[in-house]
Amino acid sequence: MRKLPKIELHCHLDGSVRVETIIDIAKKENLELPSYNMNDIKKLVQVPLDCTSLDEYLEKFDLPNKVMQTKENIKRITFELVEDAANENVKYIEIRFAPMLHMEKGLSIKEVIQSVLDGMNEACEMYEIKANLILGCMRNMSVEDAELVAKEGKEFIGKGVVAIDLCGPEEEGFAIKYKKAIDLARDLGYRVTIHAGEAASGKNVIDAINLLGAERIGHGINIKDMKEAYDLVKSTNVTLEMCPTSNLHTKAIDKVNNYPFFNFYKDELSVTLNTDNRTVSNVDLTNELNIIKENFNTSEEDYKRIYLNSVDVTFAGEDTKVWLRSLI
Ligand SMILES: [Zn+2]
Prior knowledge:
The chain is α/β, with parallel strands linked by helices. The protein is 45% helix and 15% strand. The chain has an 8-stranded parallel β-sheet.
């Protein structure tokens, strides 16, 4: 599995910071940590298996974000994520991050985006991998903030930024509040993916598609319990960005045998497999693909179909898609 070419469409930058990098930056910046030992810091940034909810899961992002407040650190952390992905033969990755989480020391939204782009481009020149960026708007921030991210990020569309996302804590019925902001983003040229149906019901997936025009849904796992949402995803061919270990951690699913990925796939829903957060969930994409292979006995032919579907639903340009298809 490690050797196979891979596509990753749902990976959060701040959830995928190397633990040794957190310690290294903290030492350099005299940032006080409770310990400078790898195992102690791992406990602060990785969720335990007995994590109870998405809200508890999201607490693990506090420390990584403290070391992502300068251009240099943001660039380094992005470079390292692309490097880690390239080292397990991910050939294309869409990295998402919320610019407004990185402004504590005075960076502007544009400076944050440019720093991520610099790290991404440097790694893509060094390794056989291509990448694009998705700008995240936090649902625990205001609608005005979401609109600001969309406007400030506009000049980067076509230069590495491809899409917009809503992320963070999920409340039932969140979508309507952000309709204006996402409509604006689409008008400005962003593709749209929305976290929905992870910590709340399939109704949020229906809203994300019907109200926000989502082309892809982050997780969407709870459509398994709502026929109307399931049927809409199927009839619209909207893609689900599924993340098995993360869903186990946030208790979106109780045990891996009940993970609906393979059933969705067999029923011809558009599904992709992703890590969500490499550090917080302590996984890589190889790990996530192996979970599905081992628990559902998928074949090489299945893998090829899943890979090719993932290529089709990337937000990449046609040249990149042609290259990705040639790799399998
Ligand atoms: Zn996510």
